[in-house]
Design brief:
Bound molecules: ligand C2E, succinic acid, fe (iii) ion
Radius of gyration: 26 Å
Shape: elongated
Number of domains: 2
Number of helices: 15
Strand content: 5-15%
CATH topology of the largest domain: Hypothetical protein af1432
Structural class: alpha+beta
CATH class of the largest domain: Mainly Alpha
Order of helices and strands: HHEEEHEHEEHHHHHHHHHHH
CATH architecture of the largest domain: Orthogonal Bundle
Length: 387
């Protein structure tokens, strides 16, 4: 048995730990999972649901566990206990949910769960605005008490600022992505009818490979968003060259190679980290690991890791897609080519990561099968947070 004092100390430790853990995570989905897991531990209850207020649609949304899967649920802002807390800003502590007129049974029905006790507090940002609702459900023994209320409110204020940070970060990425994507499409639509697919492939392959190399999540995301701009410099290439249905002459190819320089120029001196990465990728995605590429003939680690990754993603996809100057290759042949060029064209470390995530790459490729299905926007995933 812990003494009262030890118990208090234990809780204090958990609280401090909570603040440290949640302030580090900037990916909203992960953050919400971490918050729920921690809160269950600290407050000794069976469930924790974080509802986020979507001001555009006036809904509260959340992720709920359902048959081992997390699904998004949405309900109108004024529904349920959570809705009442969001509307009034008051804490609500309930001993038997099914006796409450306001209780919304839909979620239980959906998840096959039985809610009994609920403690719900508003999530307020530093400005005091309500950004969501924090609910804990079914205390492991007895009812939620005043001490639990105090702790949940405290956890709520820590969680709220972490959630807001994550939202800001993701909104920023989303608007940047939209701009980037539009720019990239403008640049490439001339030479490929299936630009949207090629760009989606580049984006997803690059992120997968970066993940396979163990790059930090933030860098993976940055590369996911920056990589579609690799060929932005093609806007500067004349139709007669870019759209030529056959092989390029040597002078034409020299002209074509300038798309790397044009791209670097377009993206030079950007404020945002994303565009700085995009600039490196545009400049160096045709450099080769052994120093025989273009435009600068730099080699090895002189080439930005982002560019070394995109180079593999780009060549693999270019080979697997039809071009005005060549038919598409079978993915296995393209994969073999990537391996042949390991250490000459490509960084062996990147090729190794490519191999590691190849199943994932093939999955993305096979969704579109190198044919010209038009996918609106880049992927649904990029649009998933719509507040
Ligand atoms: P892209 O079509 O997006 O191709 C990107 C890169 O994929 C190429 O860079 C090359 O490394 C690889 N690649 C594509 N097709 C093949 C292929 O059939 N065999 C091999 N071994 N590799 C291939 P690269 O060569 O520096 O070309 C850059 C861009 O220049 C190409 O982008 C394309 O827009 C243009 N281009 C290159 N060769 C020709 C050509 O013969 N005719 C025309 N019209 N355009 C070309
Ligand atoms: C509600 O707020 O009424 C829904 C409670 C739940 O999370 O099941
Ligand atoms: C687009 O601008 O084509 C859509 C970008 C996105 O996925 O949000
Ligand atoms: Fe290129």
């Amino acid at each position: 048995m812990m003494t009262k004092e030890e118990e208090l100390q234990n809780r204090l430790n958990l609280l401090v730990q909570f603040g440290g853990v949640v302030s580090k995570e900037t990916h909203l989905d992960k953050l919400l999972e971490i918050i729920a897991a921690q809160v269950k531990k600290i407050l000794n209850c069976d469930r924790c649901t974080v509802f986020i207020l979507d001001r555009h649609t006036n809904e509260l949304w959340s992720k709920v566990a359902q048959k081992m899967q997390h699904n998004e649920i949405r309900m109108p802002f004024n529904r349920g206990i959570a809705g009442e807390v969001a509307a009034t800003g008051k804490t609500i502590n309930i001993r038997n949910a099914y006796e409450e007129a306001h209780f919304n049974q839909d979620i239980d029905r959906l998840t096959g769960y039985h809610t009994k006790t609920i403690l719900a507090v508003p999530l307020k940002n530093v400005g005091g605005h309500i950004i969501g609702v924090f609910e804990i459900i079914n205390k492991n023994n007895g009812y939620f008490n005043e001490e639990d209320e105090g702790i949940l409110q405290l956890l709520g204020s820590l969680a709220a600022s972490a959630i807001e940070n994550a939202q800001l970060y993701e909104n920023l990425s989303k608007s940047q992505l939209e701009t980037i994507y539009r720019l990239a499409i403008t640049a490439e639509y001339r030479d490929q009818q299936d630009t949207a697919i090629h760009l989606k492939h580049i984006s997803e392959y690059s992120a997968l490979i970066a993940q396979g190399m163990g790059l930090p999540e933030k860098e993976v995301e940055n590369l996911r968003y920056a990589s579609p701009l690799h060929d932005i410099g093609k806007v500067g290439i004349a139709d007669a060259i870019l759209l030529k249905p056959g092989k390029l002459t040597a002078p034409e190819y020299d002209e074509m190679k300038k798309h790397t320089l044009y791209g670097a120029k377009i993206l030079a001196n950007a404020e945002s980290l994303l565009l700085q990465i995009a600039c490196k990728v545009a400049a160096s995605h045709h450099e080769k690991f052994n120093g025989t590429g273009y435009p600068s003939k730099i080699k090895g680690e002189e080439i930005s890791i982002y560019a070394r990754i995109v180079s593999v993603a780009d060549v693999f996809d270019a080979l697997c897609m039809p071009r005005v100057y060549k038919p598409k290759w079978d993915p296995e042949k393209a994969r073999a080519y990537i391996h042949e060029e390991s250490g000459t064209s490509f960084d062996p470390g990147v090729v190794e990561a490519f191999e590691k995530v190849y199943a994932g790459i093939l999955k993305i490729y096979s969704i579109t099968d190198g044919k010209t299905t038009i996918i609106p926007g880049i992927t649904k995933e990029f649009n998933r947070h719509t507040y």
